[in-house]
Amino acid sequence: MSKTASGTYERVCKTVCEIVPQERRVAKVFPKLKYAGIKENFDVWIGKRMILVFFAGVIGFLLPLALGRYFAFLDFSAFVMPLFEAIGLGIAFALAAVLAVYLHLYYTIEGRASMVEAILPDFLMLVASNISAGMTPFSAFREGARKEFGPLSEEIKIASAKSLGTKSFGLALKQLTVKINSKILRETVSFFAQSLKSGGKLSKLLETSALDLRRTQEMKKDLASSTRMYIMFVAFVIVIATPLLLGVSIQFLEMISTVQGEQLSQGSQGISSVTFLSSELNVKPAFMLNLSYILLTGNAILASLFIGVIGGGKAKMGLRYTPAILISSIIVFVFLEQILNSMFGI
Questions:
Q1: What is the DSSP letter of 270?
Q2: What pTM did the predictor assign?
């Protein structure tokens, strides 16, 4: 893309972004973009995602109109049916795009925070060693910002550059919490800034903090290992047990419907038969089949949220497993239904 076209596209994105009020963008969206480490202009970033959502909705709207015969599963007329489905599918596609953008941003924020929390003890130990070697706290932090520390290193270099100007080193370090959404980092920075004011053996304090963080991380790993069996049990219930029970239910309804059909044919031929299956079923196999897919979708979402809570303490972290769980459960459901149908089908 040429510079002229790129500039035009960015202006269009900024114009589209104006749909969202400025106050809401600054208060709700901009902090999250800072946490995610977005270096692009925030208005341009928001505008691009809004255009993506719009085109996703357009694609969903055009699909039933272009392929109406493949979507003709409702009892509407030939014209009204594709139109209603087009509107519904367009809204569904747009909402799915919004959800995808939100989750991508959320996982980026959490990924940066997790990466910083994982290497924070090593960084604090390195800074403590530098201070013990005779460096000033400012020099110790600046020299400890190595490339392997990832986003933490980048933000510390920015904070160090600001502290060379009018800001104090303590205030510059507090800017780290604006770019990285980590409670542990906020507490560590606040503790370090307070230690700079009060004085004392700073290197010893940093070493103690690093050891405490390492012990906390080890406890989290042990807890995750102890809950792994619960996650496996939930996955088994959702992927194997639930599709099996639904398949058995559908097969049972099909067998009952077949038996009732034979009894009706015998009754029409003058053959009397009395049976406990004489009453008509209110639930049809086709309805149960559609309901099964809805239940599998709901179970996949709930199981993902549950796995997120057990594994990381945050329900939204488990939503990434929803597609895999849903696809696996549907494949198992279709496979088991075919096997049951071949074994008991009449």
A1: T
A2: 0.78
